[in-house]
Design goal:
This protein is mainly α. Helices cover 63% and strands 0% of the residues. It folds into two domains: 90 residues, Arc Repressor Mutant, subunit A; 128 residues, Tetracycline Repressor, domain 2 (Orthogonal Bundle). Helix 2 crosses helix 3, helix 6 runs parallel beside helix 8 and helix 7 crosses helix 8.
């Protein structure tokens, strides 16, 4: 299920995201010299935190103003004083979780180490909040934490010295790669629970049937068969052996793909230096 951000009232959403204007939290602060009024029982931050906890625990499908209100011991109507609706709440949730992303990567010019750490942090971030993967990237939220995360990636990429036009495309390439790999790992984690069948059991059962129903598979797909025959099994650490098969394969794909992407960036850096 893909969810599009930015479907609520644009002015109210942006004011809440940046905590500015009549709908932002800053509007509730007393003016200098003015005595503060009664402390509100709810706040935008409390509502957003509760909504994030709900989505983390039960998924995007469980998200509703009523469900968030129930977690806070309030009715849905009580929440509308602070957040106009579910669309605006989703924008706030999406931006707020991005505050978790690190920004303190060393400015030592080692762009490869920085991007490697950034990619691993991004993978784990999405696995902590898999519902974020359902929010489409076609329309960004344009919130402060989303911008801060983008600014961090730009800083790391600028250390390559590549042309700004190339860097803009690399931002999208790296972001889509991390999100795509995270989505596969997240789905691998969900597969056994959703189907009631462990990964190994699923694969072994179907592999045996495949050999039965398609005994000439190697002739039909000779290149795939050659690849499988040339791929020697790799010894796994005890930690790797404890990870379900599908997730283990998805993580291995992430590591290999990230290495190739960074090799490609390094080649582009070398070409630019020689031109």
């Amino acid at each position: 299920m893909v969810v599009f951000a930015g479907q609520g009232d644009a002015r109210r959403s942006m004011s809440l995201l940046w905590r500015a204007g009549p709908t932002g939290q800053s509007a509730r602060r007393p003016a200098p010299g003015q005595k503060p009024g009664p402390k509100p029982k709810l706040s935008v931050d409390a509502i957003v935190a509760s909504a994030i906890a709900l989505a983390d625990a039960e998924g995007m499908a469980a998200l509703s103003m009523r469900a968030v209100g129930a977690r806070l011991g309030r009715t849905a109507m009580a929440l509308y004083t602070y957040v106009p609706g579910k669309s605006e709440l989703l924008d706030l949730m999406y931006d707020q979780v991005h505050a978790e992303l690190p920004a303190d990567y060393p400015d030592d010019g080692d762009w490869r180490a920085g991007l490697t750490a950034w990619a691993h942090d991004g993978l784990e971030f999405h696995l902590r909040h898999p519902w974020v993967l359902q929010v489409s990237q076609a329309r960004p939220v344009l919130g402060p934490h989303e911008y801060a995360g983008l600014d961090t990636l730009v800083r790391l990429l600028r250390a390559t010295g590549l042309d700004p036009h190339v860097l803009r495309r690399l931002i999208g390439t790296l972001s889509h790669f991390v999100r795509g790999c995270a989505g596969t790992v997240a789905e691998a984690r969900q597969a056994a629970a959703a189907t009631g069948e462990p990964d190994e059991q699923w694969w072994f059962a179907r592999s045996a049937l495949l050999a039965e129903v398609a005994p000439d598979l190697a002739e039909r797909c000779p290149h795939l068969a050659a690849l499988e025959g040339a791929s020697a099994p790799r010894e796994m650490t005890p930690d790797e052996e404890s990870v379900p098969y599908l997730e283990r394969e998805a993580r291995a794909t992430f590591e290999a793909g990230l290495g190739v992407l960074l090799d490609g960036i390094a080649a582009a850096v070398d070409r630019a230096a020689k031109s």
